[in-house]
Write a structure and sequence with these properties.
Elements lengths: L2 H6 L4 E2 L9 E2 L2 E2 L2 H10 L2 E5 L3 E5 L5 H7 L2 H4 L4 E6 L2 E6 L4 E6 L8 E5 L2 H11 L2
Antiparallel strand pairs: 1-4, 2-3, 4-5, 5-6, 6-7, 7-8, 8-9
Length: 130
C-alpha cells in the first residue's frame, strides 16, 4: 500500500488474509490493484480517510452479494466490492473504472466518483465528503 493509502486506513478494522483468491465475479475480472489490496486484508469495515466510512466485502462473499443485489440485472457490467448503507462501491472491468452506485437508482446518473484506480477512487470519495 502507498503511504496515502496507509494513512487512509489507520483506524480501519481489516479482516484476516483470505484463504483463497477470487479473481472474477459473475464472469467479470477483478482489477489487479484491488486484488493486491484484498490479498493483504480481505476487506473489513471502518473509517477511510478523514471523512469516509465503509466496508469492503470479503472475496468469498462477492458472488453472493452481487447476486443478492441483482447487480447483473440492475447495473450490468459492474461488480460490487463494498460500500455503506445505500451506496455501493463497484468496478467495471470493460471500462476499467471504479465508482459509487446509488443502490436505490438504476438510471444513468447512478454512477459517481468515477476513478481509474482503487487509490484514486478512495481519495476522491474522501475529498467529496470534505
Amino acid at each position: 500500500m502507498t503511504q496515502s493509502m496507509e494513512d487512509m486506513f489507520q483506524e480501519f478494522d481489516f479482516n484476516e488474509r483470505p484463504e483463497e483468491t477470487v479473481k472474477e465475479v459473475g464472469g467479470l475480472a477483478l482489477p489487479e490493484d484491488y486484488l493486491a489490496f484484498m490479498a493483504e486484508h480481505d476487506g473489513g469495515e471502518g473509517p477511510i480517510g478523514r471523512n469516509n466510512y465503509g466496508r469492503f466485502y470479503r472475496l468469498e462473499e462477492l458472488e453472493e452479494i452481487n447476486r443478492d443485489y441483482d447487480v447483473p440485472g440492475s447495473w450490468p457490467g459492474y461488480v460490487v466490492i463494498g460500500g455503506i448503507d445505500d451506496t455501493l462501491w463497484a468496478y467495471n472491468p470493460e471500462k476499467k473504472i471504479y465508482c459509487q452506485i446509488d443502490s436505490c437508482n438504476t438510471d444513468d446518473d447512478t454512477y459517481y466518483t468515477v476513478s481509474d484506480s482503487l487509490e484514486s477512487f478512495l481519495l476522491n470519495m474522501d475529498r467529496e465528503l470534505d
